[in-house]
Write a structure and sequence with these properties.
mainly alpha, Helix Hairpins, 3 helices
Length: 85
C-alpha cells in the first residue's frame, strides 16, 4: 500500500471498500485496547459506524451488480445497473 493510500479522508464516501474496511479495523483495535480517552472513543465509534454503513452500501451495490449477470448462450453478459447516482 502506498503512502497516499494510507491518508485518511474525512469524506468517507470517497474511500474505497478496502481502505474503509482497513480504517474500521484500525479503529476497532484502538477501541479494544481500552486506552483511548472517552471523547476520542465516542468520535472513533461515530466514524466506525459511518465506515460500517459505507462498507455495507458498497457490498450491497456489488451484490446487485453480480445478481445482474445473465448467462447467455454465448457466455456471460453483464447488464448495466443504475444505482441512481
Amino acid at each position: 500500500m502506498s503512502h497516499s493510500e494510507e491518508i485518511k479522508t474525512d469524506d468517507i464516501s470517497k474511500l474505497s471498500f478496502e481502505l474503509a474496511l482497513k480504517e474500521l479495523e484500525d479503529l476497532t483495535r484502538k477501541l479494544e485496547a481500552g486506552d483511548v480517552p472517552l471523547e476520542a472513543s465516542i468520535g472513533f465509534f461515530e466514524r466506525g459506524a459511518a465506515l460500517k454503513a459505507h462498507c455495507e452500501n458498497m457490498l450491497k451495490a456489488a451484490q446487485m451488480r453480480v445478481d445482474q449477470i445473465v448467462e447467455t448462450q454465448n457466455g456471460i453478459k453483464t447488464e448495466t445497473f443504475d444505482q441512481g447516482s
